[in-house]
Specification:
Layout (H helix, E strand, L loop, with lengths): L1 H22 L8 E8 L5 E8 L15 E9 L6 H21 L15 E9 L4 H13 L4 E4 L2 H14 L2 E4 L13 E3 L4 H14 L8 E7 L2 H4 L4 H10 L2 E8 L8 H9 L4 E4 L3 H13 L2 E2 L4 E2 L1 E4 L5 H8 L7 E3 L10 H13 L9 H20 L9 H6 L30 E8 L2 E9 L9
Helix pairs in contact: 2-11, 2-12, 3-4, 5-7, 9-10
C-alpha cells in the first residue's frame, strides 16, 4: 500500500512540473554585470568590471580627476620705460585668470572651449625691470616651481630667453614682436606683426595716396634701443626701396628723451623726408610729436611729413594725452580702439567691472594681458585634452597645446584670429593701420605680412 501511494504522488508531481515552470517564466530575475566608467580630465578613461543586480539599464558614472593647479604668467617689466604698459598687461592677466577659474570657459564666444572642473590656474609673476639677467633668474625660478609656459616683456628679454625656451621646450607669449624671434623661429608666440612688417604696411598704405611725380623719401626716426633698432636692418631698407622710396637715412631718439629731439627733427627737414618710420613707446613718441608740431612739422602743417610708429606707440594711450596735437600720426599693428563696438571690448569692460571696479586700468595693454592669458590657457587646455593635466610636461604644452591653436578669436580686439603651428609663431595674418584724425582713432585698413627678417646669423 505504501509503495502504491508513493508511486501515485510521484506521478502527480511529474505531470504538474511543466505547468509550474511555464507559469513562472515571466518572473525570472535577470542579473546584469555593468562596467563602471570613470572619466578624468585629460581624456584618461579607466574601465573596471563590477556585478550589479538591476532590472534597469546600467548607469555610467562620470567624475573628474584630482585637483590640479597649472601656472600661467611669467616676467613683467614693472620698472623702467615699459612700467605703465606692463602693469596693464599684468592687470589683464589677473582678471582673465579669475574669469576662467570662475566660469571654466576660454571666452563668452568660445563657450564650447571648456576647462576641466578639476583644473585651477594660478598667476605667477615677477618684475624683470627690463633686465635680461634678471629675466633669466626669474625664468629659472618659475620653471623650478613647475611652470609650463612663460612670457616676454621686451626685445632684450626675448633674445635672452629665446635659446632657453627652445632647449626647455617651453612656449612663451610676448608683448614684444621682434623680427629676431623668427630668425630662426623659436618658441615665442606673438599676437601682433613683427616691427619690420608694421613699417612695411605703413609704407604700402602711404604710397596709395602719394600723387607727386617724384619718388617719396623715407627715413627712420626711431628709439635708440633694441626696440627701435629692430627695423634698422638691410632687409627693411631694401624693401622700402623696392616699393619706390628713396631712403634718406636714420635718426635715433632716447627711449625716454630728457630733452626735445630738435636736432633729429631738423635733420628730417634738411633731408626732405616725407615719411618717418619708427618704433617707440609713448614716453618717446609723445615728446617727439610735440616738438615736431612746435617746428611746424606734420600732416597738413607748414612742413608736410607723416610720422608713423609701430604698435608700442599705441594711439589708445597717445590720443588721450595729445588730443588734436597728434592729428596725422599713424600707428601700425595695434589692437582696436578701446571704444570699438566689438565683443572683445565688451568682454574686457566686463572683466574690469567684475574684478577691479574700484581700480580700473585704462591702458590699452590691459587687452594684451587678456589675450596673452587666453593664449597660454588655451595651450594648456588643448594639451590637457590629450594628457592628464597632472602629468603634463612643457613639451606636451608646446606641441599639443600652442602648436594646435587654431582660429583663437579675440572678439575683434586683434585684426584677425590667431593660428599657430610648428614653425608658425605669428598669430595674426595681417597688419592693421590706424591714424589720428580730428582727435579720433580712424581705421585705415589692413595689409599683408611681408616677413621682412634679418639675415640668418
Amino acid at each position: 500500500m505504501k509503495r502504491y501511494l508513493i508511486l501515485s504522488l510521484l506521478a502527480i508531481v511529474l505531470v504538474a512540473l511543466p505547468l509550474m515552470v511555464a507559469c513562472g517564466e515571466d518572473e525570472t530575475e535577470t542579473t546584469t554585470t555593468a562596467a563602471a566608467v570613470t572619466t578624468t580630465a585629460g581624456g584618461a578613461t579607466e574601465t573596471t568590471g563590477g556585478a550589479t543586480e538591476t532590472t534597469a539599464p546600467a548607469e555610467t558614472s562620470t567624475t573628474v580627476g584630482e585637483p590640479v593647479t597649472l601656472y600661467v604668467g611669467g616676467t613683467f617689466a614693472l620698472t623702467g620705460a615699459y612700467a605703465e604698459d606692463c602693469a596693464a598687461v599684468l592687470a589683464g592677466f589677473e582678471d582673465y585668470v579669475k574669469y576662467v577659474n570662475d566660469n571654466k570657459i576660454i571666452a563668452p564666444w568660445h563657450d564650447d572651449w571648456t576647462i576641466p572642473a578639476n583644473i585651477t590656474f594660478e598667476l605667477l609673476w615677477a618684475d624683470d625691470a627690463l633686465d635680461p639677467a634678471k629675466t633669466l633668474t626669474i625664468y629659472e625660478d618659475q620653471k623650478s616651481k613647475g611652470m609650463l609656459v612663460s612670457r616676454v616683456s621686451g626685445s632684450p628679454e626675448g633674445m635672452a630667453l629665446k635659446d632657453l625656451l627652445i632647449e626647455d621646450n617651453i612656449g612663451a607669449t610676448s608683448q614684444s614682436t621682434s623680427p629676431a624671434y623668427l630668425q630662426p623661429v623659436g618658441n615665442i608666440f606673438t599676437n601682433a606683426p613683427i616691427y619690420t612688417d608694421e613699417m612695411a604696411a605703413v609704407a604700402e598704405w602711404f604710397l596709395e595716396s602719394w600723387t607727386e611725380t617724384r619718388a617719396p623719401r623715407v627715413a627712420y626716426l626711431t628709439a635708440d634701443s633694441p626696440l627701435g633698432r629692430n627695423i634698422d636692418i638691410p632687409e627693411m631698407q631694401e624693401y622700402l626701396v623696392s616699393l619706390g622710396f628713396e631712403f634718406a637715412g636714420a635718426q635715433f631718439v632716447p627711449m625716454v628723451p630728457t630733452a626735445p629731439p630738435t636736432t633729429q627733427l631738423a635733420w628730417l627737414k634738411d633731408n626732405n623726408v616725407d615719411l618717418a618710420l619708427g618704433v617707440m613707446v609713448n614716453p618717446g613718441s609723445q615728446p617727439t610729436i610735440k616738438e615736431a608740431v612746435r617746428l611746424g612739422m606734420g600732416v597738413g602743417m607748414e612742413y608736410e611729413i607723416t610720422f608713423a610708429f609701430g604698435n608700442p606707440g599705441h594711439l589708445q594711450i597717445f590720443l588721450p594725452d595729445m588730443g588734436a596735437t597728434g592729428n596725422g600720426v599713424v600707428v601700425a599693428g595695434d589692437f582696436c580702439a578701446q571704444d570699438a563696438d566689438v565683443p572683445g571690448i565688451e568682454f574686457a569692460n566686463m572683466l574690469q567691472d567684475t574684478y577691479r571696479a574700484d581700480k580700473k586700468n585704462t591702458n590699452v595693454m590691459y587687452l594684451d594681458g587678456v589675450i596673452e592669458g587666453m593664449t597660454q590657457i588655451e595651450a594648456l587646455r588643448l594639451a590637457a585634452m590629450q594628457v592628464n593635466p597632472a602629468d603634463l610636461t612643457t613639451e606636451d604644452v608646446l606641441k599639443k597645446g600652442y602648436w594646435q591653436i587654431k582660429d583663437l578669436d579675440t572678439g575683434g580686439i586683434s585684426v584677425s584670429k590667431y593660428t599657430y603651428g610648428e614653425g608658425d609663431v605669428q598669430g595674426v595674418d595681417s597688419c592693421r593701420i590706424q591714424q589720428v584724425e580730428n582727435a579720433q582713432i580712424v581705421e585705415k585698413g589692413a595689409y599683408p605680412l611681408r616677413n621682412i627678417l634679418p639675415a640668418a646669423q
